[in-house]
Amino acid sequence: MKYSSICEIGDRDVNEDSVVCLARSDRWCFVVADGLGGHSKGEVASSIVTAVFSDQFPESNGSNAGLLAASFNAAQERIINTKQKSAEMKTTCVALSIAAGRFVYGHIGDSRLYHFRRAKLRSRTLDHSIPQLLELSGEISEDDIRGHPDRGRLFRVMGDEWDVPRYELSRERKLSVDDAFLLCTDGFWEHIPATMMTQTLREAGSAEKWLLAMRDVVLTAGREMSLDNFSAITVIIKE
What we know:
By secondary structure, this protein is an alpha+beta fold. It has a single domain, classed as PPM-type phosphatase domain (Phosphatase 2c, domain 1). 32% of the residues lie in helices and 28% in strands. A hairpin with a 2-residue loop joins strand 2 and strand 3. Helix 1 runs antiparallel to helix 2 (64-85) and helix 6 crosses helix 7. The radius of gyration is 17 Å and the shape is globular.
């Protein structure tokens, strides 16, 4: 398994993204969080998420889903407790857990995970956003999500009060040779279509080269605008 990560400020004054890659023996966990702009202390909320995952990971001996659920729940509780003492804070999160040759991913908000197999896109998480609902109902296309005026309107995030958990977990699946994963914030995926993700994956020889190739696309596409924070993790499974 090879992986690589970036967490860049773009043209903003503060980087509200947080990223962590965790590894031990035959278990790995990858996390990307994006503090919500316009909410005070978004960078604190995202850093709480990665800190909690980092705390939970060394003690995790159970299932992939169990690790993710425990971490999402503990991070939500810590954010709620922290914001009661200070300012409002909210964040998205996407996480991937791999252990014993199997994987599970979870997400909340509009940070995404893309799963590729043999350099073909198999699936991606669905945003908890108004434009994603419009796309699912057939009112707009997939490409229209990127530039939609309501793209920042999220109906599930960490830091909102929950009666029940609001994150989603995938079913557990068997890991295969030539699986590849991309976890990223909206500041990353809004500038690179899935076709380009696939093309750069096919041309790359490593997780790092794949990520750097996509970073170049993001920087080029965002050159004429105020570039948001952008963060991503790439994971590639090889024999």
